[in-house]
Request: fold
Amino acid sequence: MAVLSLLFACFAASHANTLDSVPTAEWKDIKSDFRGFVRASSGPVLIKNSPVSSWGAARWTPEGLRSQAGNVLVPIKNSTESVFYMGCCKLHRIPLREVIDRCAPPPPTSDPEKPPEKIYFSGPIQFLGSWIREQTNINMLDMGEVSHDSAYALENGGALRANLWIGNKGVVTPAHFDEMHNFFIQVYGEKTFQLFPPSAWRELKLYPKFHHQHRNILRNLEDPKVFEKVTKEILDRTKSPPLSVTVTQGDILYVPPLWFHRVETKSDVSISINVWSASAKCEKVSKAWMEKFPIPLKSLNVLTAYLAAYIQVLIQEFYGYDAELVKEFTGIFRKSRYGGLKGKDIVRYSPIPMEVDSQELIDHSAYIKQVEESSPSLFDESNVGSKEFKNWCEIDDDIVKEMTNSVPNVLRHFKGLSRGMGEIYLGNFIEDMVSQVVGFKRTSTFMKTCVQNPILGKKNFKKLVIDNKEYAEGYAEYQPSPSHYF
Reply:
């Protein structure tokens, strides 16, 4: 992996023209309406000369942190590999001064055959003590879109959070997305970001929602050939290349919700703070999961037919009545989230070597076990297999009519999302609905058998759905937002 990272660096330098630069804004030009500027931005923005330079934290150096908090025990990951995937490593607690010392370049007398150690710390800023609050002002980056006392904020760790990051040269955080506004502040050293819009999920390929890597991507961007191929695929489809930017001391990089970002430390030591602020759009779409599940609890075969109709109507309404788009989306959805895990345990298997004692894997395994034991799918409870799908997915007109009146209640929560954001959340919603009935392991087969080849043609769909007055009134609530990155 270390060799691949070196190749990636050479590749990125020689193929810089395949990536667009991130737009830059001066704080003095946006400070009067900072929140409005961020909301209006169509993608990431690099903010220069911000008030962050006046924070006490802006003067942090490795030596300063060692003297001020050197005895604090912090959880770190270390490896001879450069890429720190979720679940890659077991956490170790060591004094912060040791983290700083081990981040230093190896001495010239060290063994040239021995791979240099990579070390990585990430944790809430208050981990180092209450003094840290006096040297930061994260409230200035609060978008104020979500109440700090709301159920959504409390269930997701808070409406405003800040993390401290320390690592040495070559450390890579692989491409992933966050569901909050992300303000990344470079305190010391340099980092380089590669950024991809939400719609790039088609090319980057996501893991299933219940996988421990579910916000990460399947495509191995550490392989220069794969990176070049993925970049070309995105450019060919969207006509917009991914973005690249290097952040230096005092910079703020704004990364919008659901934008994929890969991050690499370029300096010998890097110290960064990122501030996450909850997104109103992400809070709104979460309410789709609170809508009443409209499928009647009848016999399992009837329930399966209703579920197939519900998912088909949901996707067609999202894309605007076109049955062919159901087939297209479902095929890409299955290939993206399940294609790389064919024949594997989709919630536990990882193509990336994992550390079985890593806290991420331990926590995820406990969660999946709890779900399987306390809330098994209806198919698991009834000991039914996937072979029944073929016979149970027959949809008639009456079932479709029942489904059409409830789907707009879900999609109204998608209003205001870009197409790419909507597609990611649509996929998550579908996985949740389908897995409740057929289980995690049968979701892909269900989508292929019961949804990917729509039983409803465009003409039939118009007759049964669009001309349905009650449906039309509900659908008026939802209109996909235009996006430059469709």
